[in-house]
């Protein structure tokens, strides 16, 4: 069987695509899988590292206002459709799978024009623009929240949940400590702002480090994101912040499964895939939703966990290092709270999403 997979820009679109690719490898004998992305997206690095061949096309996102840039985007998209047609005709896939992000638009359009079987996966309660635009013409839509059904009227829609990379589910605490060389007798905090990092979270961390310095039974992994890493290190230096070996600052974690395996608490944004991963492993969290996500969907995501007692929420404009320190302190010092949050988080997890998506794929291919 031959599959083309596309989806990108940010990790929230790429990682579900890679989980589906893993599922295909388990289900089919030596499937041929080709990824299509853009050179400007994170997929350029992440996909080859995961061992899949990738080809690049031209694509870029529409801005919300009418502008000359949008005309350029339109022309680039048309060019991208042409490039995708050439790739699809050459590769001859049995199925084309899209997980959203602007690169998925031209590829899926080309697949539809060539009469190929198509499947899209939507990660959020409020669907992204690409998936909304092409949903009318694809064979099947896999969704992760019941609420998103209403945006995809009259289609074959299945609620599957968000698929998660298998390493995230299977990495053991022992392996995590060993791979990261961390102290197994300390409480570990993992801080990251989605796949791109979060500026406001990084700023708050500059004040939060002192909490770790004062509390020797804690250790911290803080992932700044690639965009802010250098600037963040510069700011630490300028402010004269003394870092201890219990504070590890990273640009990006390609093996985030190690950090998940040892994390006692996560502090981060509330992107859909991050939350699917956190709940699949049952890790308590403090969530700071990105306030500018379409339809404020990150707050919606975060509140779902908060309502069930799996997470606490701090709104971005209320975020400070002191507020975080206060909350972390409360979570760890309240008798039994961490355990209750863990259990609540695990109950929300849906580790079988990948399997559900593979079942849809088998159904489409058997038609
Ligand atoms: C700002 C914005 O609009 N963000 C959107 C974007 O978020 P974003 O791209 O941040 O995606 P998510 O939070 O859903 O997922 C982040 C992914 O990156 C991985 N990761 C992150 C850091 C790291 O160092 N290593 C690593 O592997 C995580 O394990 C996870 O798999 O897509 C999500 C899914 O469509 C949406 O819900 C988010 O609202």
From TrEMBL:
Glycosyltransferase family 28 N-terminal domain residues are: 3-142
Chain positions recorded as UDP-N-acetyl-alpha-D-glucosamine binding sites = 10-12, 124, 165, 195, 298
Q: Name one Pfam family in it.
A: Glyco_tran_28_C
The organism sits in which domain of life? Bacteria
Which source organism?
Anoxybacter fermentans
Translocase: present as a keyword of the record?
no
Q: What keywords sit in the KW lines?
A: Cell cycle, Cell division, Cell membrane, Cell shape, Cell wall biogenesis/degradation, Glycosyltransferase, Membrane, Peptidoglycan synthesis, Transferase
Cross-referenced NCBIfam families, in alphabetical order? murG
Q: What name does the UniProt record give this protein?
A: UDP-N-acetylglucosamine--N-acetylmuramyl-(pentapeptide) pyrophosphoryl-undecaprenol N-acetylglucosamine transferase
Query: Gene3D superfamilies of this UniProt entry?
Result: Glycogen Phosphorylase B
> Which residue intervals define the domain Glycosyl transferase family 28 C-terminal in the entry?
188-356
Task: Give the taxonomic lineage as stored in the record.
Answer: Bacteria, Bacillati, Bacillota, Clostridia, Halanaerobiales
* GO cellular component annotations of the record: plasma membrane
Q: Does the keyword Cell division apply?
A: yes
Membrane topology according to the record? Peripheral membrane protein
Major place of residence = membrane
Q: What GO biological process term is on the record, naming one?
A: carbohydrate metabolic process
Q: In which pathway does it act?
A: Cell wall biogenesis; peptidoglycan biosynthesis
* E.C. code: 2.4.1.227
Q: Which reaction does it catalyse?
A: di-trans,octa-cis-undecaprenyl diphospho-N-acetyl-alpha-D-muramoyl-L-alanyl-D-glutamyl-meso-2,6-diaminopimeloyl-D-alanyl-D-alanine + UDP-N-acetyl-alpha-D-glucosamine = di-trans,octa-cis-undecaprenyl diphospho-[N-acetyl-alpha-D-glucosaminyl-(1->4)]-N-acetyl-alpha-D-muramoyl-L-alanyl-D-glutamyl-meso-2,6-diaminopimeloyl-D-alanyl-D-alanine + UDP + H(+)
Q: What class of enzyme is it?
A: transferase
Its family remark reads: Belongs to the glycosyltransferase 28 family. MurG subfamily.
Q: What does this protein do?
A: Cell wall formation. Catalyzes the transfer of a GlcNAc subunit on undecaprenyl-pyrophosphoryl-MurNAc-pentapeptide (lipid intermediate I) to form undecaprenyl-pyrophosphoryl-MurNAc-(pentapeptide)GlcNAc (lipid intermediate II).
Protein's cellular compartments? Cell membrane
Q: Which GO terms describe its molecular function?
A: UDP-N-acetyl-D-glucosamine:N-acetylmuramoyl-L-alanyl-D-glutamyl-meso-2,6-diaminopimelyl-D-alanyl-D-alanine-diphosphoundecaprenol 4-beta-N-acetylglucosaminlytransferase activity; undecaprenyldiphospho-muramoylpentapeptide beta-N-acetylglucosaminyltransferase activity
């Amino acid at each position: 069987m031959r599959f083309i997979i596309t989806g990108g820009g940010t990790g929230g679109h790429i990682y579900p695509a890679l989980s589906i690719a893993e599922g295909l490898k388990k289900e089919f004998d030596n499937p041929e899988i080709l990824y299509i992305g853009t050179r400007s997206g994170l997929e350029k690095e992440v996909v080859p590292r995961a061992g899949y061949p990738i080809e690049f096309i031209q694509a870029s996102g529409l801005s919300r206002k009418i502008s000359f840039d949008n005309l350029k985007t339109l022309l680039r998209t048309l060019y991208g459709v042409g490039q995708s047609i050439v790739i699809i005709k050459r590769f001859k896939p049995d199925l084309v799978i899209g997980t959203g992000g602007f690169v998925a638009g031209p590829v899926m359009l080309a697949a539809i024009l060539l009469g190929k079987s198509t499947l899209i996966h939507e990660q959020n309660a409020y669907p992204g623009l690409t998936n909304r635009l092409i949903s009318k013409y694809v064979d099947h839509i896999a969704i992760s929240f019941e609420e998103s059904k209403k945006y995809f009227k009259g289609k074959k829609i299945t609620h599957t949940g968000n698929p998660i990379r298998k390493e995230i589910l299977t990495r053991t605490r022992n392996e995590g400590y060993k791979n990261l060389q961390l102290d197994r007798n300390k409480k570990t905090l993992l801080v990251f702002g989605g796949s791109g990092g979060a500026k406001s979270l990084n700023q708050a961390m500059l004040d939060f480090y002192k909490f770790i310095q004062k509390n020797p039974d804690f250790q911290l992994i803080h992932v700044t994101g690639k965009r802010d890493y250098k600037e963040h290190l510069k700011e630490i230096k300028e402010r004269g912040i003394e870092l201890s070996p219990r504070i590890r600052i990273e640009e990006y974690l390609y093996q985030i499964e190690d950090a998940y395996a040892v994390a006692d608490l996560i502090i981060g944004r509330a992107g859909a895939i991050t939350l699917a991963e956190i709940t699949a492993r049952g890790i308590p969290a403090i969530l700071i939703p990105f306030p500018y996500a379409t339809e404020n969907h990150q707050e919606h995501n975060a509140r779902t966990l908060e309502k069930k007692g799996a997470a606490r929420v701090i709104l971005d404009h209320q975020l400070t290092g002191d507020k975080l320190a206060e909350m972390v302190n409360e979570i760890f010092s309240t008798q039994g709270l961490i355990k209750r949050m863990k259990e609540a988080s695990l109950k929300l997890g849906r580790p079988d999403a990948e399997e559900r998506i593979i079942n849809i794929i088998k159904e489409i291919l058997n038609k």
